UniProtKB/TrEMBL annotation:
It comes from Vasconcelosia minhoensis LEGE 07310. This is Uma2 family endonuclease. Pfam families: Uma2. One of its GO terms (molecular function) is endonuclease activity. Gene3D superfamilies: tt1808, chain A (3.90.1570.10).
Amino acid sequence: MTAAVQYPFLTPQAYLDWEPLQEIRYEYIDGEVFAMTGGTLPHSEIAVNLTALLKNHLRGKGCRVLGSDAKVGITENGPFLYADGSVTCDPRDRAALKFCRFPCLIAEVLSPSTEAYDRGGKFAQYRRLESLQEYVLISSDLVSVDVFRLNEQGKWELTPYAQDQEIHLSSVDLAFPIERLYDDIDLAASESSETS
């Protein structure tokens, strides 16, 4: 997320009407809009790998797997945020067109410019969702994934995953080797191109 764009205060409905007409995506928080920055190709590939894993696993199970163009509404009136991937299995989201409200899983692919926000302010907003069971943070520069799960006591627990480990996403009952998120991505080449 970048700084707020200089627009007059927008009501939630004005934002929902205005934002699809823009050339870039904007998140909406408390009447202000925030331009979404573009990511790297590895960032995009990781998000695609995740949504492909989720879609293949959940096909025919009554869940919707959503990519980075889908908004998550914290309430009916916002904030409205974009996640790199999300899953909703809630029947209340079945007919949703503009945003989902009841995801069980949300994933963000981290970049240096957004990592602090994804771990802090954005996660704080997502935690307001009663339906959310897992929040997945995926590194885009090394093989590393942090999964936050809501435990039976209502506390968020962190499980970090690294090279050669199997990730288990309990909200959707999916297990896979962490390397599947990084299929066909040369992280070493990505790192060297950023420094040159």
